[in-house]
Specification:
This protein has 272 residues and is α/β, with parallel strands linked by helices. It starts with a helix and ends in a 20-residue tail after the last helix. The chain contains ten helices and seven strands. A seven-stranded mixed beta sheet has the order 1-7-6-2-5-3-4, with helices on both faces. Helix 5 links the parallel strand 3 and strand 4. Helix 1 packs antiparallel against helix 3 and helix 1 crosses helix 9. It has a domain of 189 residues.
Length: 272
């Protein structure tokens, strides 16, 4: 009973402080558009700096420790990373400055949708050819402006039992721009006796955001291990680049669990 009360007290305190940090970010997001009147590049740098500070502060409040290793990419860059949770975005923002490529549905989310758009996210609608073309243009514009772009080529978050197939259409910009693709590998761990990283940190299947997020706030000893690989994927056909990126990620990734209680193939959040 005492453990239950302490956990929920911890969760409530973290939620309140986290919402306060989010409120500060929301107020701050009015600044970049004003700066953009004078300089687009300065506005992008300010926005990414704000998102980085907010991510580091929020992760600290949430009790998530980030352990980063390997050489971080320098803008302009393209960075491919495996996808495990909504936490991934903050983890990556806490370590590198970059805009994200996200599914079009994110823009329609209540409350978070406007924030995701304000963060400079490039949206992609994979169900329409025009949507893919528009996303390619958006990414190209970001890279040409000297910014980094981060994407999740699996197209879905999962439980961390394996790296799923990398989709080749996500590498079209790299194939066109002749930029190499940097690779990052992310995994979560926890030493909590009553919680498991693959269920309580990764987000997949039929999990709904609110209860999962609140439970995440109630326990400690959460670690995000982010590894930037030294080897990049050289310019080639997009399918060849996707295959090579996947090979590098698989070789560097340490599975978070074995497929015993969790069924392989059912551990994804949505179909891409």
């Amino acid at each position: 009973m005492l453990r239950f009360l302490l956990a929920h007290t911890r969760g409530i305190i973290r939620l309140i402080v986290g919402l306060a940090a989010l409120a500060v970010l929301v107020l701050g997001l009015f600044l970049p558009p004003l700066v953009r009147i004078v300089s687009s590049s300065a506005a992008d740098k300010l926005l990414l700096s704000m998102l980085g500070v907010w991510s580091r502060c929020t992760l600290l409040v949430m009790g998530v420790k980030v352990v980063s290793s390997g050489p971080k990419p320098v803008a302009p860059y393209l960075l491919a990373c495996n996808h495990l949770s909504y936490l991934d975005v903050m983890i990556l923002w806490s370590q590198v400055d970059g805009f994200f490529l996200g599914k079009a549905e994110l823009a329609k989310w209540p409350v978070m949708g406007p924030l995701i758009r304000a963060a400079g996210t490039v949206f992609i609608n994979r169900t329409q050819r025009r949507g893919v073309i528009e996303a390619i243009k958006g990414i190209t514009d970001k890279v040409n402006a000297g910014s980094g772009v981060i994407f999740f080529p699996e197209g879905t978050s999962s439980s961390g039992g394996e790296v799923r197939q990398y989709k080749s259409n996500m590498f079209q910009v790299a194939a066109q721009s002749e930029l190499p693709v940097h690779i990052a590998v992310l995994r979560y761990t926890t030493s909590s006796k009553h919680n498991h990283a693959e269920k309580d940190m990764a987000w997949w299947g039929e999990m709904t955001f609110t209860p999962h997020f609140y439970k995440l706030l109630t326990f400690d000893n959460k670690v995000a291990q982010l590894k930037f690989l030294a080897e990049t994927v050289a310019h080639a056909d997009r399918k060849e680049m996707a295959q090579r990126a996947e090979q590098l990620a698989v070789a560097a990734f340490e599975p978070m669990h074995q497929f015993d209680e969790i069924e392989r193939g059912n551990d994804v959040s949505f179909t891409a």
